[in-house]
Amino acid sequence: MTTTTPEAVGRSRPAKAPAVFDAAAARKDFPILGTLVRGKPLVYLDNAATTQKPRQVTAALVGYYETSNSNVHRGVHRLSETATRLYEGARAHVAEFIGAAEPAEIIFVRGTTEAINLVCHSWGRPNVAAGDEVIISGLEHHSNIVPWQRLCEEKGARLKVIPMNDRGELLLDEYERLFSDRTRIVAVNHVSNALGTINPVAEMAASAHARGVPLLVDGAQGLPHLGVDVRALGCDFYAFSGHKMYAPMGIGVLFGRKELLSKMPPYQSGGDMIKSVTFDRTIYNDPPHLFEAGTPNVAGAVGLDAAVAYLGGAGQDAIRRHEEEVLEYATGRLGDMEGLRIYGTAREKAGVISFTMEGVHPHDVGTILDTEGVAVRTGHHCAQPIMERFGIPATVRASFGLYNVKADVDALVAALGKVRSVFR
Ligand code: 7TS
After folding, report:
1. Are 402 and 215 within 8 A, CB to CB?
2. Would you say residue 126 has pLDDT above 90?
3. How far is the CA of 243 from the CAs of 54, 252, 310, 349, in angstroms?
4. Which domains does the chain possess?
5. Which of 44, 141, 170, 378 to mutate to test the pocket of ligand 1 (most atoms within 8 A of CB)?
6. 158: which residues sit within 8 A by CB, 6+ positions away?
7. Ligand 1 atom 16: residue of nearest CA
């Protein structure tokens, strides 16, 4: 028998977040960090790909399924009311967490990829025509390139790309010059998953708005490291994935300003996005439901809600300071290693170190690190244009989460020493 009540599922947030983040204590919330990989303690440094989940999130998932599981928005029975309250409660908490004006500005989707596709489909198709222009940056993940490229191909529009310098920073003068009277939207990431660059999105939004152009932020890597206040950023759309912020896979969010959402046609069609249907005519529902056709990922939303409570309770500013410290330590230690080159040396950086080792293919580095229990990502990180910009096929990427500590960096450096000894 479980003792969790439906009302207890999801959240417990202290009144005030502490000023300092206690990573050692937080590690105890993540059971996977206590496991062995290939006989060695796991050193998890692949957080940009996905983060691990704290007990608070997995307990919320189990609690939901054991006490409250039901479909939402359709039953009069008790469980359906509870599930609906939890789902809509999650929406309200996410809205509050990111500073949205109201819950209706939060659309639940599968993740960042779906959020960007939704905007391309429902905002892009009606608003981008032949000869128009879309601005993205050279730092984008494929999921903020390919949907825009397809839209431009379909419409006969032009994709313009903001270049970067050798540190991996966007050239803002060039950005200003890319605007024309045909610019329809700007889409840029908050933090680069391949280089860690933090982009000045508030400034970039102000430039776009001065010309009457909306701006979408791909926040997949922004929210987990920096937190976000969408009103302070001044963005029109902000997309993020639950699984990169300690929540389950398969749930994500598109924030959209109400003014834009209210003018957008549906994305997918089916149940829940309608008010009434006859064979002659369908009357659509209002946002956010208009964009959430079909049974949603209710458990995912409950898990996301728990992750939001977890991050809110720990305090995103405190988490950010802790991660900055670990990143700085790692940059120093890796920077001291002979034959190791770091890609992405922006002045404003978060969460990521991409590097190569002279004479060793990144995949070989990753494979040897794995034998030491150290999990990193190797490859192009779904950002091939960045690799092309630097003239390399791939990098090794260590990416940090809130539970990483300096000892993880020491383990990485020791394992890289092993790589060196094998390839000497
Ligand atoms: N945008 C950025 C900046 C990302 O880093 C990613 C995923 C996505 C969009 C797509 O997110 P999804 O949840 O819809 O897949 N990035 C990575 C990565 O760096 N390694 O694996 C996935």
Report:
1. no
2. yes
3. 12, 8, 14, 21
4. 40-47+316-422 (3.90.1150.10), 78-312 (3.40.640.10)
5. 141
6. 131, 132, 133, 134, 152, 182
7. 49
Give the ligand 1 atom nearest the CA of 113.
14
pLDDT digits (tens, 9 = 90+) for 346-379: 999 999 999 999 999 999 999 999 999 999 999 9
Distance 141 CA to ligand 1 centre (A): 7
Could you give the 3-state DSSP secondary structure of residue 9?
coil
Q: How far is the CA of 245 from the centre of ligand 1 (A)?
A: 12
Q: Which residue has the tokens 């977890």?
A: 310
DSSP state of 72: S
How confident is the model over 49-103, as pLDDT tens digits? 999 999 999 999 999 999 999 999 877 899 999 999 999 999 999 999 999 999 9
Ligand 1 mean position, distance from CA 23 (Å): 24
Q: What is the mean pLDDT of residues 267-282?
A: 95
pTM metric for this prediction = 0.96
Asked if 284 and 272 count as a contact pair (C-beta separation under 8 A), the reply is no
10 within 8 A of 60, measured Cβ to Cβ? yes
pLDDT tens for each residue of 169-204: 999 999 999 999 999 999 999 999 999 999 999 999
111 lines ligand 1 (CB under 6 A): yes
Joined together, the tokens standing for residue 161 give: 């790309």
Q: Is the CB of 402 under 6 A from ligand 1?
A: no
